[in-house]
Structure formats: C-alpha cells, structure tokens
Amino acid sequence: MNTNSNALQVGPIDAIVVRKPIKNLHLSVLPPNGKVRVTAPLHIKDDAIRLLLATKLVWIKRQKAKYETQERQASREYVSGETHYFLGEPYRLEVVCVNLPPRVFLKGKDKIVLQVRPNSTFAKREEVLMSWYRAKLKIVVYEIIEKWSKAIGVQTNAWGVKRMKTRWGTCSQKAGRIWLNLELAKKPIVTIEYIIVHELLHLIERKHNEVFVRLMDKHIPKWRSVKEDLNRFVLAHEKWN
Hints:
The protein is α/β, with parallel strands linked by helices. The chain folds into two domains: 4-69, no CATH class; 83-232, Zincin-like (2-Layer Sandwich), CATH 3.30.2010.10. Helix content is 36%, strand content 27%. It is built from six helices and eleven strands. It has helices at 46-55, 57-69, 122-152, 189-201, 210-219, 223-232, and strands at residues 4-10, 13-20, 26-30, 35-41, 83-86, 89-97, 103-107, 111-116, 158-162, 169-172, 177-181. The chain has a four-stranded mixed sheet, with helices on one face. Strands 5-6-8-7 form a four-stranded mixed sheet. The protein has a three-stranded mixed sheet with strand order 9-11-10, covered by helices on one side. Mean pLDDT is 88; it is low at 237-241.
C-alpha cells in the first residue's frame, strides 16, 4: 500500500497526517498520550485537513484531556511489590529467583508470582510475564469468539493476539481475520467481550456507520457504558503492554 506522512499544526494542535489510497478522511486522538492523527486519501490537500482540524478543535481538546488526566501505571521494573493487573483486578507481583524454568502463576487472591532464574534481565522478566498474559488472554478470547460467532452468525478465518499501541482490536473484513491487543489481558472480561463483538461485527459492516451502531445496539445494548469504562481504566506506562 502506498503511504506517505507529514506533520501539520493548527493552533495548539500538532497532527500527524498519513495519506493512503482510501476514500475518506479519518481523525483520531490516540492513546496513551493523545497524539492526533489524520488518515487521508492521497489526493487531499493540507488546507482541507487544516479545515477539518479547525472544525474539530473542541472535540480534539476534549479527547486529549481524557488521556492527560487518566491514571497511568508507574514504569515497569518487574520487581516484587509492583502492582500488575489481570482481568481488571490488581495483583501484587512477587518475583521468585530460582534455577528452574521460568513460569508465572497466581497465588491466593492478590498475587502474581513471576518465577525466573537468578540474574534474569528486565527484558527476560517482561517476556515471561507477557507470554503468560498472552496465553491466559487466548483462553478467554477463544471462549468469547465461539459464543459470539454463533450468536451473530459470522465466522473468523483467523484471530490472534499482539501488542498494539493505538487500538484495542482490528478486523480485516476481506481476510476474515481479527487481531486483539495484548493489553486486554489486564481488562475485565466484559470489556474484552465488547471489543470482540465490535470486531466480529466489522465482518458484517466495515464502517462505523448507522448500520454498525444498530448492530452494536442489538447485541450489546450497554456497549457505550462499557466503552466509557474501558477508557477509564489505568493506562500502561508510555505504551500498550
């Protein structure tokens, strides 16, 4: 796909403009720091994008303010005593250094035990914990996709979990494939379900239009409040983990 990008400033707003062979302009304010991005057709001039930014200035400021005031996790060091989240609940991390294969497990109701070898690096500890999150999330996702694929009447050709900085999930309607953000492992199941249904419905309707909204209303009548709750949860430090 042919793309190019440049920066534009309108008043106090700095925006990144990404041009692609698409039909419509798309304006986004992205987590975790409120970066403004405009995805535009290749032929659209900068003046048209400046006009869009100017007319949406109040909305942009409101979205940026949400991220600026949202609570964030402290920088991760993967040492005992840190708070980490799993399925919406806080857990205290306990790091155990032993000469045994690395693993992660829950201990009681409020601890995540990270077992690693002595002198393990930051990168290794992060890798072990993220692998555990990925495995746990895949179990949850499999059950939800099975349930909602039948309820909606759609079928995915493939789905997976990966780190994404700006989206909770993506759907390729053409390929019938869904990707989900690894960060969802830290969120309540009700929000994971909302994201999965959202992406499954994109297999029916690609755009966020009236048809799509009606489908969301039909299958998850309270999806708007769930979306608000998701946006209020603690953000990862600097990037989606």
